[in-house]
Amino acid sequence: MIDIPSMVSDFAGCSCGQNHECAIGLVRVESGLQGRVGETLRAAGFPHRLLLFGDKAGFGAAPQVGPSLKEAGFSVETIEYDSLRVARMEDVERVENAIRSGRVEGAVAVGTGSAHDPCRLACARTGAPLALFATAASMDGFASYSAPIVDGVFKTTHPAKCPEVVLADSAILAAAPAELKSAGFGDMMAKYVALIDWRVSHLVSGEPLCERVAGLVREAVDKIFALAPRVLATDEESAAAVFEALLLTGVAMSFTKTSRPGSGTEHILAHFWECMELTEGKIPNYHGIDVGVATLLVMREYERLAAMETVRARRETPDWDEIYRAYGPLAPNVRQLNTPDTITDGIAPEALEAAWPEIRRIVASVPSSATIQEAMRTAGCPCEPAQVGKSPEFVAKAMSLHPYMRRRLSLMRLSKMLVG
Questions:
Q1: CATH says 4-176 is which class?
Q2: Phi then psi for 165, rounded to 5 degrees?
């Protein structure tokens, strides 16, 4: 398993000039670990009064976590939801209130992303220690310093807390539902797009990029790509290997203190789908399921763009009135992100034209959309929008509008500057 303190030491003095840190002091992935969570956290120096946070699915997958905490002498307050598919700001505030009241001094989140994210933000706001117990290898945020939270109907990624301890029981990971395993694989395939967008932004705008961190992400995504035939397997060795690959991308995000190494325009596209569905009262799909489909859509578009040997560019001239009308109730949030200036204002058209040959090479540096699709099918992932409940009209609207809902430069946003 990953020795994160050793990794931090190895990345010390990185030539990129950034101080790469990760607060995780302990990672354990072992068979039967759910019954030893209490003794593990006691040895890690966790405080006496703990909040146990999750939903029925997470607690049902790991029923021994709570009893093991009590057996180790912890005082435990539990917040349990019937279902926690969407992490909302009110969930963050519920955890934060429990900590600020003095009833608890730290948190243990049991489940996957939607159970972990509220605790990451609440513990960041209060300085409380945090342990994550993963019940499925379904996402990559276990080591992240960011948390995507829905406030109203708008999903925003907030600077959050990296946990001090990450735990998983390989028997539970192996027994996780196939849909969650596929979601984790889809979330990892997104890293190919994320790396394209990060490198393109660095090339065109000078956004900082650490080659060693980018290499760490590429290593992790290539590793899980090769594991596609084993993703749905129920053996513990395979489940632990997938979890470790996911954890590595979280470490990369913690090293840069942003989600940039693991999240590109494909995540923004998925967030657009999720937010629009929330405005209609719909519960979105598992995050990684939508992200995987979005990855294929974006890769196909990037390949179409890269097929052009040369381009002509101009200043971006969005019809903001039309864009805000299309966003409906999300318009105030989008307007705030795009005023008084936009992310492309500093990009000279001639600079984009000059960079185009290198942009084409960057797109070609990752596996093709067809290759990614084949791996996703092998891992049991949906690959087309119709399979995840997205109509052609909804997809077309999202492909056009999604780049405006984040202040993050991507090749998709730069394509708005192209003529013809």
A1: alpha beta
A2: -135, 135
